What we know:
The chain has 553 residues and is an alpha+beta fold. It has helices at 31-39, 268-276, 296-299, 354-359, 381-395, 411-420, 441-447, 451-457, 465-473, 501-513, 532-550; strands at 5-10, 15-22, 54-55, 58-59, 64-75, 79-82, 87-88, 108-110, 114-120, 132-138, 144-146, 155-160, 166-172, 182-188, 193-196, 223-224, 237-244, 248-255, 258-266, 287-290, 308-309, 314-317, 330-336, 363-367, 399-409, 431-435, 487-492, 517-522. Strand 1 and strand 2 form a beta hairpin.
Amino acid sequence: MTTASAFRYSPSAQHLVFSAYVYPDGLVETVKEQDTAYENRGNSGLVYDETFERQWDTWVGPKSKAFIGVSLTRVVGAKWVLGETYVNVLKGSGLSSPVEPFGEADDCDISKTHVIFTAKDPQLPKAVHTRQNIYLVTHDGKDLRQLTSGIQGATHSPVFSPSGDKVAWLELALDGHESDRAKVVIYDLQKDVRFTITEDWDRFPDSIFIFTLAVPLTPPSNAAQTTQPTALTSSGSISGFTPIPGGRATFALSSLTSPNELYELSGLDAVERDLLAGTNADVKATMLTRLTSFSSTGLQGKDLFPGKDIWTHGYVITPPGFERGVNGKWPAVMLIHGGPESAWFDQWSTRWNPNVFASQRYVVVAINPTGSTSFGQRGRPIQDLLLGWKYILQEYPEIDQNRTAAAGASYGGYAINWIQGNPKLGFGFKTLVCHDGVFDTTYNGYATDELFFFNHEWGGRPWDPAAFEASRKYSPAYTVAKWSTPQLTIHSSKDYRLPEGDGIAVFHALQQLGVPSRLLIFPDENHWVINAGNSLKWHYEVFRWLDQFIGLS
């Protein structure tokens, strides 16, 4: 078995649960034999009778993910013994979990007696609906029950309380809306009551790691209320938060100037006591300790800028050697994030890293328009980008307005194509870079793997009158006659979210118009460029293009 992942272990029950791909018989014991038969079937044809035939970067095959349970005991001599009987707790249910393509261990949790997990509703077409239900099942798989209402959207990050009598998860309200604001839901297993505790909290929680802080008393019936969470940190971006004994937690922390390093936060037991007593917690009493310095040597001599908050929210990252008062010297690039329900964070990344652009001697502008994560759920992103860009040009006269560019991916790529066809907006960019962007908005409603995304954002299926009218009105494909700005277009062949035909169509249009243009294709990448060599090629071509049109001599 080579697909085991998402491990969860209950020391009290000495029971291990993990995910693995299985065939329709649900047995891990037969996977190897069936893999051999499938690989030697003599053809490569794939036949589908329903949608979701492919997702993200993979064509759906005959296997699906399931949770497998097995005993794991520690005996004399510190030796671990794995049991011989494997139980698929999802067998016969029609459920598959973790939810692909990104679900892993955070899609489940384990207690002494049960496993809790999230899974797509098996009664609904997966490409059209986002609904994921929360399920509770005994270790032997014989008692499966659904805890969600059945009318919600997606769910994520289910966890047990330390005592095992309550569970919590993140829940999105609307089926079909993959980027709805998540709320924290508690389910009291003893009282059979489900209640929301962040109903009016104006943030977007991403995961639930620990379930002991300031949980209100269970109401008499299902209800929605708001308990204000307490922030334990205030800068950088955290991932992999893991509680450990002694009132401590470890996690990875990155920022705009540093990749992930491991940190320990101590003093959480005192914070917990204050919150459970109903008093304000003294977070300043906690201690943050850096445990690793993996990046210290590599960052030596690098002039990285932490970014300056601007406007409603966003960052300006200035290049090495930048000085205020030297007007009209510096070229500038505005980066447009995807989504649009996403955001620029104080976070390190190997993709679209603002400081990498700044190191090439560009002033970098990264704006979070309304509709970005934690900046409301309604907005006019293009208008906000335009207002933000004009504000930057006023506040930073050091920028040479004759050497400006914009670059974006996914929704940001759509925005690039839209800006290309709407010069009257007045951005004034001298060149553009589009990565995996939409060309024909209406066609994308047919071609994307996640049909629900188009249906929600445009208010219907692509042939429904209102959705058809709106998607055509805002489709870059019908603005081509006005295209004139030099553009680099990048696309990947395994991007099933925004298929490569869009990028090729943009390039063909620009070429036939005689507009300076270039196409960069990655046959083996998906919506993201992950391979290290491909990442270097991506950056080389992007900076080669920018330097050609707006770079410092």
